[in-house]
What we know:
- The protein is an alpha/beta fold.
- It folds into two domains: 3-64, Helicase, Ruva Protein, domain 3 (Orthogonal Bundle); 79-279, Vaccinia Virus protein VP39 (Rossmann fold, 3-Layer(aba) Sandwich).
- The protein is built from ten helices and nine strands.
- The chain has helices spanning 3-13, 20-32, 36-41, 49-63, 68-72, 96-103, 122-130, 143-155, 215-224, 243-253; strands at residues 74-77, 80-83, 112-116, 135-140, 161-165, 177-182, 228-237, 256-262, 268-275.
- The protein has a seven-stranded mixed β-sheet, with helices on both faces. A two-stranded antiparallel ribbon has the order 1-2.
- Strand 4 (135-140), helix 8 and strand 5 form a beta-alpha-beta unit.
- Helix 1 crosses helix 2 (20-32), helix 2 (20-32) runs antiparallel to helix 4 and helix 6 (96-103) runs parallel beside helix 7.
Amino acid sequence: MIISQLLQSAVKANYRSESSQLDSELLLCHVLGVTRSFLKTWPDRPVNSAQLEQYEALVQRRVEGEPVAYLIGTQGFWSLDLTVSAATLIPRPETELLVEVALGLSVPEQASVLDLGTGTGAIALALATERSQWQICAVDVESDAVALAERNRQQHQLDNVTIFASNWFAAIPQQRFDIIVSNPPYIEASDPHLSQGDVRFEPASALVSGSDGLDDLRLLCAQSVAYLSDGGWLLVEHGFEQGAAVRELFVEAGFSLTETHRDLNGLERLTLGRYRVANA
Ligand SMILES: C[S@@+](CC[C@H](N)C(=O)[O-])C[C@H]1O[C@@H](n2cnc3c(N)ncnc32)[C@H](O)[C@@H]1O
């Protein structure tokens, strides 16, 4: 078999995926240890039987719905290649909006930042690559996610990030941060999408938050104010239908300048607000 034939048959087998061409190429790149441009440049290269067997097994798992990122073990986020695992969510491109907005905030040059529910470390590590003077603390309740984020931190040699286990604020020493960011679980427990597509393979601990999806966001809004410096910012990602409810949570907690940003699809995705300690 040659590269072009293999890709053709994989795309055919995986026809239900909206990204079957890309999926097939990424899996083959993983097996052959090459880039996608190699596949385009050398479509006539033969593939040996061990590679063929490994590739066919991965394509079969993809046909059964397993996300490509779990199959190849990595996912690009911002400028970083991150190791992923079934311990936590695969970082999504929409979450880059949170990074972009955080980088545009008015904060001290040596800002202190807290990332709650860091997962792979995606948000914290992306911020750290852009702002080496920021001191960033990142936590997750899942010890496997903490280990994964730490592995990603070491891989990218980001010394301005500290990662440890905490159930939201429980293990965070009492201190005030200039920015708190979080992409918490925010899906309703009864959401039918949980049993469809790629999310079936991701842990519920990273996705589900009570009957209306807002349990964690409620807690984060209410408790963040005790950990924000005067003029500090809270930024949270949320579901596209949760904008109004989340803005209300911000106002109830005492935030001002509360606003919601839309993602590239025009959907409400991220809400932020500023906290004035004097207003409390
Ligand atoms: C939606 S995922 C986001 C992961 C990562 N921040 C990202 O954007 O890709 C939510 C993360 O919150 C973590 N989490 C859930 N409950 C938590 C809690 N009580 N305390 C801390 N982290 C929690 C999950 O383990 C998961 O890694």
